[in-house]
Every structure is written in C-alpha cells, then in structure tokens.
Amino acid sequence: MTDIRIEVTGLKKSFGDLNVLRGIDFTTPRGTSTVLLGPSGSGKTTLLRSLNVLDTPDAGVVRIDDVSVDFSALPAGKAGRAEGRRLRAQSGMVFQSHNLFPHRTVLENLTEGPIVAQKRPVDEVVAEARVLLDQVGLAEKADSYPYQLSGGQQQRVGIARALALKPRVVLFDEPTSALDPELVGEVLAVIKDLASQGWTTVIVTHEIRFAEKVADQVLFLDGGVIVESGPPAQVIAEPREERTQRFLRRVL
Ligand code: ADP
C-alpha cells in the first residue's frame, strides 16, 4: 500500500471577492516530489502557504502524515489556532529569499528553532545541524554570518534550517527566483539531492527543465484549479490540456 504523506481535499481560499483556490484535490506519496506549475496568479503560492497554514483556507481538508485539519469546520479562536499550529509543524517552508537571522552564525540559524521552539537537547541539535550543513555543502561556513555568504549559499542555509526542524514535508516557494542566474544551479542541486534522499517535497518553480528532472508528479494549476496532473513525462512532455500546452509554449 502506498504511504500517502499529503492529502488535500476540496481546498478553497478566497481573498475578498477573488477565488484563488477553487477546490483543490491531490495526494502526495511519501518520499516523492510534487512540482506546482502554472501561470502567475494561478494560486500556486497560496496552495503552498495553505499547506503550511501561512494562509488559512476557507474550506477543505489538509492532512500531512498523522495531522489532519478540516478547515470547513475549524473552531474559532484559540482552538482553531492550535490546530493550525499542529499542522504547520508538519512542514518546513523555504521561501524565495532566505530570511536568515542576520546576527546569528550559520550554525545558530539552524539550531535556534530546534533548541528554543522544540526544546530538544543542545548537543544533539548541534551535531545534527553540522550533518545538515555538510549535506548542503556548507560545513566550513558554520561559524560565518549570513552577510558573509553568497545568495546561493544563504539559500542553502535556508534549506538546511528548514530541515533542522525535522518536518514531514519540505515546501519550496520559488526557491531560486531571487537568485542571480549563475547561483540557481547549486540550489537546485541541493533540492534534487533531498528528493533522492527520500524527503517528501512540494516545489513551486518556474524552472521547467528542473521540474522535469526532479518531479515524480506535476500539478498544473490555472485559475485556482488543477487543470492537469501526472508524471512530468506526461504533463510537461505530452500535455493533454490546451491550457497546459499554451503555458508550456510560452515558457519553454
Ligand atoms: P501564483 O503563486 O500562482 O503566482 P498566488 O497564489 O501568489 O499565485 O496568487 C493568486 C492570486 O491571489 C493573485 O491574484 C494574487 O494577487 C492573489 N493574492 C495572493 N495573496 C493575497 C493576499 N494576501 N491578499 C489578496 N490577494 C492575494
């Protein structure tokens, strides 16, 4: 039986009169990478932020591993916020540009969350953080400060920091779009590495060639719905839907 890590059912989100997500359903098996593609404004970032409850959906169910929240029946006030926090803790988010603590070293950026928020033992957290820094190729930068790093290195620290919290899934919101072109490759390589190590990832990206290589599943969004989904060999190489074809013609 497949082990489903993320299950999204009937997800809806509006901002005022704007229906940004109009009923989203998908599942993500454990250890797979899902790439969200679609034109600007199609709802990709809102969907990603909904998984992490940075945006609170109006309706629908999100389950990540053993935590499930029904946003159609979310209790008001404190109880609802507690449910949201439980779901948020299941995922780690990597943003467009690193939002590292500027006055903390690279190592401290990784250890702060696990020590302060998760109250885990310092020795264990530091040892794990060093392993993670090694994984993203930055072992020798542990004692540097963010301003001493390139944009690509900072983004790799951002990824390691998300992993340090041991999330069940890692969410990437256009992780390379704020980088100079020559720095994109090193960050994509780290993400690809994570995917091959068995992390479950959901990635919003405009890098179609990268999506083709890394994705197990591509969801093509337009107008707040999933227009087409499947492996990249289908959705990217041989899209069935006219809207997908039109989008790919524009970006490829
Ligand atoms: P994408 O990531 O596909 O470009 P987004 O999810 O960022 O799309 O945005 C979808 C639509 O929702 C856009 O029209 C955007 O302007 C709107 N939107 C996103 N966030 C907000 C917000 N906090 N308040 C109002 N409108 C928003």
Automatic annotation (TrEMBL):
Species: Lentzea sokolovensis
What CDD domains does its record include? Answer: ABC_HisP_GlnQ
Q: Name one GO molecular function term.
A: ATP binding
Q: State the superkingdom.
A: Bacteria
**Entry's Pfam families?**
ABC_tran
Membrane topology per record: Peripheral membrane protein
Q: What is this protein called?
A: Amino acid ABC transporter ATP-binding protein
Instruction: Please tell me whether the keyword Protein transport is annotated for this protein.
Output: no
Query: Where does the record say this protein resides?
Result: Cell membrane
Sorted alphabetically, the keyword list is: ATP-binding, Cell membrane, Membrane, Nucleotide-binding, Transport
Start and end of every ABC transporter domain? Answer: 6-248
Q: Does the keyword Transport apply?
A: yes
